[in-house]
Write a structure and sequence with these properties.
This protein is α+β, with helices and mostly antiparallel strands. It has two domains: 67 residues, no CATH class; 103 residues, no CATH class. 33% of the residues lie in helices and 25% in strands. The chain has seven helices and ten strands. The strands form two sheets. It has a seven-stranded antiparallel sheet. The protein has a three-stranded antiparallel sheet with strand order 2-3-4, with no helix packed on it. A hairpin with a 5-residue loop joins strand 3 and strand 4.
């Protein structure tokens, strides 16, 4: 009995160490503001928190709090204030990446070689309407292939094409005969792909 327990304990330790080692290989972008896909791919932000500016009355804030400001100002190398609203690619802070598209930031829910994110926009009601109504929005889930910068709709066909580069994982996914079940497992296999094929800076 003790031998069996020792074997189980050894198995548990080995798997725990292996899991930690696998986790250590996962790259996440440094905190900051990235101005292009290439800067994100290389892991070199264009601006750090110290470069960001809100107002002379608000000097303590996070990158995400700054990203909610209207002008998105930074302090340039010559000390002037400039808006970078039309040039941002994404921000990264505290293990969270948000892509900037269509004048809004969109949260990346799974970051890796294949990024899974929610693209959402508000629909603003008529400002002149005398009746106060709720604000509705639209949202779609999409995939960003980090090494190419291509964006895809989150559907079965695109997931299969993206994970096809890992032949073993692709065969495992295709062995699930029910297309309905494969659809339900799409996100799980994006996660699996990213763990098995970790992205590294400069790979793109």
């Amino acid at each position: 009995m003790r031998l069996f327990q020792a074997i189980l304990l050894g198995f548990f330790i080995i798997n725990t160490v292996s899991a930690q080692e696998a986790e250590d290989t996962t790259w996440f972008p440094e905190q900051g503001v990235y101005m292009s896909l290439e800067s994100l791919q290389s892991g070199k932000p264009g601006y750090m928190l110290a470069d960001l500016y809100k107002s002379q009355y608000d000097t303590s804030y996070t990158i995400r709090e700054w990203s909610r400001s209207s002008r998105l100002l930074v302090t340039t190398s010559v000390g002037k204030k400039a808006s970078i609203r039309d040039s941002i690619f994404c921000i990264s802070e505290d293990g969270r990446v948000e892509l900037y598209m269509g004048g809004r930031f969109h949260k990346v829910l799974e970051f890796g070689a294949i990024c899974y994110f929610r693209e959402s926009y508000k629909i603003v009601k008529d400002q002149m309407s005398p009746v106060v109504t709720e604000t509705y929005g639209t949202a779609d889930y999409r995939l960003l292939e980090l090494n190419t910068g291509l964006i895809y709709d989150f559907n079965l066909s695109n997931v299969e094409n993206l994970i096809r580069k890992d032949e073993e994982l692709f065969r495992e996914f295709k062995s699930i005969k029910s297309s309905k079940k494969r659809k339900n497992l799409m996100y799980l296999y994006i996660e699996k792909f990213n763990r098995r094929n970790p992205y590294h800076p400069g790979q793109g």
